[in-house]
Specification:
Elements lengths: L1 H7 L3 H8 L7 H14 L5 H8 L4 E7 L4 H14 L4 E7 L4 H13 L4 E5 L3 H9 L6 E4 L9 E2 L3 H14 L6 E4 L5 H17 L7 E2 L4 H12 L6 E4 L2 H13 L9 E3 L16 E3 L2 H17 L13 E3 L11
Parallel strand pairs: 1-2, 1-3, 3-4, 4-5, 6-7, 6-8, 8-9
Antiparallel strand pairs: 10-11
């Protein structure tokens, strides 16, 4: 480190600040230090640094089923946010229950992590988090807006309300809803936003039909909806199920959006290339990761809670899969 400081023409303390991602370093000074690091091929010794400072600058992340777009994107957002000074260790659990959650926390404690983020989209995960004993800062992500612990979340209610209101404003008498599993907090809150929009508009509230987040389940439900001539608008709790609905409706001779409108939730990268391109609700996973990291760093530093934390606002992305209802 002394060689890096000498070559960059700065103090040893300035080099340390750059390595630790400290914000109070001038951009040119930071670039000079990074250039000296590259030229000398310097590699910080994390083990030695942790012995001196008593800190590992390592965070633990506990997740479940990262094959799904939502949890995978949350994980990516957390990793991107942590690049400013922390490394991330990840464990994926086969099931969220108190014992496996406690074991994961204990493993992280043994590795010296400074804090833990849990991607907790299932009700059992939230219940397990509340019940475990952890003498370490812990933040939950994706566990809805009413979790009884430090957490950050997307405003699912607002996003579903926007999507449903958009379809109603196009002139549809009501909106049929394909929800996710009732055990997931995202699915519950999206159902709440959908129902709220219908009630405020005085529209009939159809029975919720639930899938399992997969395109296959949307496809199977889409066949059922195609046999119901009163269906003119469908809101799906995620884009994969919307993809399945589009396929099923097409097989029954429906032209989307001329005969029926379809709206999704998530804005997965492929949604703009569906046929037709999917109107959907975009989640800002980058901001979710940044908020989670800021909250956890505040807890690690012992700073007091900033008060009520607003959920991350979603955005309705209008494409070509929804239009006015057909004339009967």
């Amino acid at each position: 480190m002394a060689d890096v400081a000498r070559l960059a023409g700065v103090s040893h303390q300035t080099v340390s600040r750059v390595l630790n991602g400290h914000p109070n370093v001038r951009p040119q000074t930071r670039e000079d230090v990074l250039a000296a690091i590259r030229e000398l091929g310097y590699r910080p010794n994390a083990a030695a640094r942790s012995l001196v400072t008593g800190r590992t600058h390592t965070l633990g992340v506990i997740s479940f089923d990262t094959t799904l777009y939502g949890p995978a994107s949350m994980l990516y957002g957390i990793e991107r946010a942590a690049h400013s000074g922390y490394s991330v260790t990840i464990t994926s659990l086969p099931a969220f229950e108190s014992r496996s959650m406690q074991e994961a926390v204990d493993r992280f404690l043994g590795q010296g992590v400074e804090g833990i983020i849990v991607i907790a989209s299932e009700m059992p995960a939230l219940e397990a988090l509340v019940s475990i004993a952890a003498d370490i800062p812990l933040v939950a992500v994706g566990c809805g807006t009413r979790a009884p612990l430090d957490s950050v979340a997307i405003d699912n209610i607002s996003g579903a309300f926007q999507a449903t209101r958009y379809l109603l404003d196009l002139g549809h008498e009501t909106v049929h809803y394909i929800g996710g599993p009732d055990s997931t907090l995202d699915a519950r809150e999206r159902a709440e936003g959908w129902a709220r929009a219908l009630r405020e508009a005085g529209a009939i509230e159809p029975e919720i039909v639930r899938g399992d987040w997969s395109a296959r389940s949307g496809y199977e439900i889409g066949h059922q909806l195609a046999m119901m001539p009163e269906v003119t608008a469908v809101f799906c709790a995620n884009d994969q199920m919307a993809l399945g609905v589009l396929r099923a409706l097409g097989e029954h001779g429906y032209q989307v959006p001329t005969d029926a409108s379809v709206v999704g939730f998530d804005d997965i990268p492929e949604s703009a290339y569906f046929l037709p391109p999917l109107t959907t609700v975009r989640q800002d996973f980058g901001e979710l990761g940044r908020q989670a990291l800021r909250l956890l760093v505040d807890r690690i530093s012992g700073r007091p809670a900033p008060g009520a934390r607003l959920p991350v606002a979603p955005e309705l992305i209008v494409r070509a899969s929804a239009t006015r209802p057909p004339r009967r």
